[in-house]
Specification:
Blueprint (H helix, E strand, L loop, with lengths): L1 E9 L2 E7 L7 H9 L12 E7 L6 E7 L5 E2 L3 H15 L3 E6 L2 E8 L2 E7 L19 E3 L2 E7 L3 E6 L8 H9 L9 E7 L5 E7 L4 E3 L3 H13 L7 E5 L5 E6 L1 E7 L1 E9 L5 E5 L1
Parallel strand pairs: 2-3, 4-6, 11-12, 13-15
Antiparallel strand pairs: 1-2, 1-18, 3-4, 4-5, 6-7, 7-8, 8-17, 9-10, 10-11, 12-13, 13-14, 15-16, 16-17, 18-19
Length: 280
């Protein structure tokens, strides 16, 4: 038995995509193995997207399930959703895709390699983030950093610093990620202002348990917190993670725009190492 997959990334956020029609007896074990570049079956990724395409609808729909490297699932992933939409568009020829996620249905527009995804309305409500308190957590000290908590499909803690590159993220983020304030944990985002009006971003992702080169829900979280704190003069802003540029628009719900890249496809056998069977 072999399992076919495709590898995509959105601004450096890597995903293995598997058609839900593929028989994967244990999705948790599969994600742990494939996401770990050191594992015998590993290709290295920030998560596995299992996608069930329903092309009979107009626009086509795809049901998205994200399993993270630690085997947990995440309700939403901005870059993952953009890659999922690109995958579905390539199979249907559509320039619009509806994605059903655990955070709700999200509409995506595809323009070449650029994909825009609806992200829903960011919320600071304590029960929605969630945080272990009755009031929103806004600019309060958590493990030595002044953070604001927001949910953009998944929980985020955002801290503004002078220069994101001056911080040892791997050293400081785990304590914030698992702080008592966050009963379900939180993704940790550092942001610093740029001269062009945008923000630099670094993110330590819950479920990956490490820094990723990009995080779409994190970019939206930074924009939402910046607006709440009066750091944003416009409803549109560019956020720059290490992997590239993401454009966030805030309005009646947020949108996230950025590039997607199809890297290669391959197959994983029941025991041998995965093989690339096509290079993009």
């Amino acid at each position: 038995m072999t399992i076919q997959y495709q590898k995509y990334h959105g601004t450096g956020n890597d995903f293995v995509i598997v058609d839900a029609d593929e028989y994967v007896p244990d999705r948790t074990a599969f994600a742990r193995a494939v996401c770990d570049p050191q594992a015998p079956d590993g290709v290295g990724a920030d998560g596995v997207l299992f996608l069930a395409l329903e092309g009979r609808f107009s626009p086509p729909r795809a049901v998205m399930t994200l399993v993270q490297p630690d085997g947990s699932t995440a309700a939403m992933c901005g870059n993952g959703a953009r890659c999922a939409a690109k995958w579905a568009a390539e199979r249907t020829g559509a320039d619009e895709i509806m994605l059903d996620t655990q955070a709700g249905t999200r509409r995506a527009e595809i323009d070449g390699d650029e994909v825009t995804i609806e992200m829903g309305e960011p919320t600071f409500a304590p029960d929605a983030v969630p945080v272990a308190r009755e009031e929103p957590l806004v600019t309060e000290t958590v493990e030595g950093f002044e953070v604001t908590a927001v949910n953009t499909g998944v929980p985020h803690a955002v801290a503004f610093v002078e220069d994101v590159d001056e911080i040892d993220l791997e050293a400081i983020a785990p304590a914030i990620r698992s702080a008592d304030a966050f009963p379900e944990g939180a993704n940790v985002n550092l942001a610093s202002p740029r001269l062009d009006g945008g923000f630099d971003q670094r993110t330590f992702e819950r479920g990956v348990e490490g820094e990723t080169r990009s995080c779409g829900t994190g970019a939206v979280a930074i924009a939402a917190v910046a607006r709440k704190l009066g750091r944003l003069d416009d409803d549109s802003v560019a956020v720059h993670p290490p992997g590239g540029r993401l454009d966030v628009t805030l309005g009646d719900g947020a949108t996230l725009t950025g590039p997607t890249v199809r890297e290669f496809e391959g197959e994983v056998g029941s025991s041998p190492e995965p093989r690339r069977v096509g290079q993009a």
